[in-house]
Amino acid sequence: MKRPKLGKFSLVSLRDLLAASLPTILLVLAACAVAYVVVDPAPPRHVILATGQENSAYEEFGRKYAALLARDGIKVELQRSLGSEDNLQRLLAGKADIAFVQSGSTSEAQAERGNLMSLGSLFTEPVWLFLREGDKRHKLDVRGLTQLKGLRINLGPEGTGVPKLFRQVLSVNGVEPGQLTISSLENTPATVELLAGRVDGIVFSSAPEAPLIQMLLQTPGIRLFNFSQAEAYTRRLPFLTHVVLPRGIVDLGRDIPAQDFHLIAPTATLVAREGLHPALVDEFVKSATEIHGGAGWFSQQGQFPSPKYTEIPVSREAAKYYRDGPPFLQRYLSFWLANLFDRLWVVVVALAALVIPLSKIVPPLYVWRIRSRVYRWYGQLRAVEQVLENADPANCDEVRAELLRRLDDIEGRVNHISIPLSYADSLYGLRSHINFVRQRVRASQKSEPKAG
């Protein structure tokens, strides 16, 4: 005798459970997809950074940002520009996503109207006024800015921000720009003109890392102007700070420079459009910390980057980074993996909003699917009883025989129903009820009156 294959029986029907859960699963997956893609989209892998002129500090730092973000799979397209003012216009026109902008270039109200946000100030970029010493017959000995009258001074293109800045500096000295012969060459050609003696001085506003600044500080015959009244300038123009170029900082062995130089300096700020993805804000601030966080010629360790020294409102994400440090996940995971887990919180919220109410629907739906396999046969039994009750006495024997065959067929089909063991009582109840109806059909024959 063959033993029954108990492996066919189970407490739960996985097929029915899956079928009952399928609508809920599809709704949850759809909600997760919407939350993942629409509510909190992934950060872009391409961003445009407007830098500055050729051989400028902005361009040099731009390369460093591109190298750091490339490690996390983000391509930073460096967009060369004239400088701070040009960068500001590129941001406002939507031609760049992020840019270096000098303090004093705009106001808080203008920045808010233009939907701009600061990611923090990065470094001081002093105003460097380099002058030719002249020759023996025409020696230039400029001690104050009023002595620039009549000289040929290059301020650079309007897009650099330097012309606007230096005109303000001249103004507080009572000097009108028309009293100078001003040219607007870019930094590199202007340096060539200075070395050739065709201009008397050039003005930069840049970090000392700029190659042209490094070269001019060590070039014989070129002298750096000393802003001996630097502290007074910071009172008249609040966006400026007073910094000191220490003696020997360029070359201690050759004692370059041979004295301390007082300089006035705005700060360079990393400015972005408000649409920049929050994850990219964190990534740029993290890179800024690595690039600008060390001690420099004009800053102490950890002084930069900073949410201070900027008139543009600081981004909420950037302010949080400066206050609390990098996000928890970014301290231990790669950028994209940390971003993935961070975005999964949105999915968790979507799941909680759907799974809890939908989970109350799945169990009743599962029970209904199981019990419906049994209950639908009760309709067949009721139909048999109705036929029996309405049978014509003239052909009762044929009707009973047909009904018994029908009940045998029903019983045969019921015996092949697949149902979990936890619901076996319903199946056995159905089988007993089939037998009950069969007994009733047979009993109807005995109760018929005999023909006399």
TrEMBL record:
This is TAXI family TRAP transporter solute-binding subunit. SUPFAM superfamilies: Periplasmic binding protein-like II. Keywords: Membrane, Transmembrane, Transmembrane helix. The keyword Iron does not apply. The lineage of its organism: Bacteria, Pseudomonadati, Pseudomonadota, Betaproteobacteria, Burkholderiales. InterPro entries: TRAP_TAXI. The keyword Membrane applies. It comes from the Bacteria. The chain crosses the membrane at residues 344-368.
